[in-house]
Amino acid sequence: MRYPAAETAEKHTRILDEASRLFKARGFGGVSVAEIMKATGLTHGPFYNHFASKEALMAECIDHASAAALAQLDSVAETPEGMRDYMRAYLSADHRDDRAQGCLMAAFAEQTGREPGLSASLTAHFKATVERFTRHFPWRSKKAARADTMLMLAAMLGGVVLSRAMDDKALSEEILESVRTGLEGLASRA
Amino acid sequence: MRYPAAETAEKHTRILDEASRLFKARGFGGVSVAEIMKATGLTHGPFYNHFASKEALMAECIDHASAAALAQLDSVAETPEGMRDYMRAYLSADHRDDRAQGCLMAAFAEQTGREPGLSASLTAHFKATVERFTRHFPWRSKKAARADTMLMLAAMLGGVVLSRAMDDKALSEEILESVRTGLEGLASRA
DNA sequence: TGTACATCAGTGAACGCGCGTTCACTGATGTAC
DNA sequence: TGTACATCAGTGAACGCGCGTTCACTGATGTAC
Questions:
Q1: Less crowded by CB within 10 Å, the N or C end of chain B?
Q2: Contact between A101 and A25 (Cβ < 8 Å)
Q3: A107/B109 touch (CB, cutoff 8 Å), yes or no
Q4: Measured from the CB, is A26 under 7 Å from any atom of strand C?
C-alpha cells in the first residue's frame, strides 16, 4: 500500500530508535534485521526501503544515538557542577545495568574498532564529546583541560565496561567507586 | 588414526593459542570454528574431541590468555619502575595496532559483559591483575593503591579501546598520550 | 617376538538453522483528466 | 467533482550462504595373547 509521506520519515526514525536500543543492549551481531523491524511493528521486507544494508543502519545508528547523547549532554554540562554530576551518573550502577539507554561509546567502541566502516561516526561523536567536556572542565588548569578530558573519558568508559564484565557484584561496585573517587580526586587537587 | 598421547595435549594447546590470537584480533563472533582449526592445521571435525562447544572454547581461551598475560606481567612488574614501563607500553601505538598479541581485557571486556558464561574467567583475570598492580603500585599512598590501580586499569583499557576506534590517527595518538601523561601525573603528585 | 584385534583422533560430507537480502505481488493513496 | 490509473511502502515467501555441530568411516597406534 502507499502510505502518507509523513509516516515514512517517522518510521525511519522509529527503526533507528529501536535499532539503537537493541544494538546497545546486545551488540551489532546480537540483533537481526528481522528483530529490529519486528520491534518497530513491521515485517523485515521494507527494511531495504529505508537502509542500503545492515551495516548502513549500524553507522546511521551511531549518528542517531550521538545526536541524542549530545543533546542530553548539552542540557546538563553547562557548568562544572553539571559535568561532575554527569560523571557520577555515568559511573553509577544504574548506568552499568541499563545498556539500552546508556553510553554509545561504552556499547560500541570495541566493535567499532573492528569495523572500519563505523569508525568515522564514532570518531565524530568522540570529538564532539571532548569539545563539550573541555569547555566546562571542572578539573585542574584550563590549559590541560583537553588532555584531562581524554583521561577522564577513557577512565569512565573503561570503568563502565569493566564493571559490566564482572560477575562479582561487590567488585563491580568497587570499580565504579574507585574510578569515581579517583576522578574527583583529580578535581580536589586542581 | 590413533595418535601418540603426547600429541593430543599439544594440539589442545595449539588450538587455544590460535583461537586466542584470532578471537583477540576479530572478536568471538568474527572467527569460525573451522577457521581456528584450519589455523591449527586440522579440519574442523576433531574440534569436538577437544571442546564441548565454541562457547566452552571461548571461556578456556580467556583462561589460557590470562595465564600467559599474568606470567608476562609477573616478569616486568616486580618494581614500581617496571609497572610504569608496563603502563607506557600498554598505552603505545604498538599495542593499539597489535590486537592479536595485546591485552585480553581490552579485546574481550565488552563481549564478556554480554555473555554471562564468560564473566567468571574475565573476573578472575581482572582480580589477579589488580592484585599484581596493587602490590607494586608506584603512585600515591599505599593505602589507596587498590583504588588507584582500578582507576589506572580503567583508564588504560578505555584509552586503548578508544584509540582503536578512531579513524583519525592524530586524535588516536592524542588519546594515548593524554592518558599516559595523566596517569604519570598521578605519580608525580604521590 | 609375532600376530590379530580394539582403540580413538582425524576426515570430510552432511544437517539444520538463522541470517542478510531479494522479489513478485498487494492495495490504499495521490494524481491526471 | 468523479473516475481511471500510476505509484510505491508494505507483505511474506524464498534464496543463498556460512555457521556450529554431528556422524559414519579411516587407519596408525597400542595391547592382548
A1: N
A2: no
A3: no
A4: no
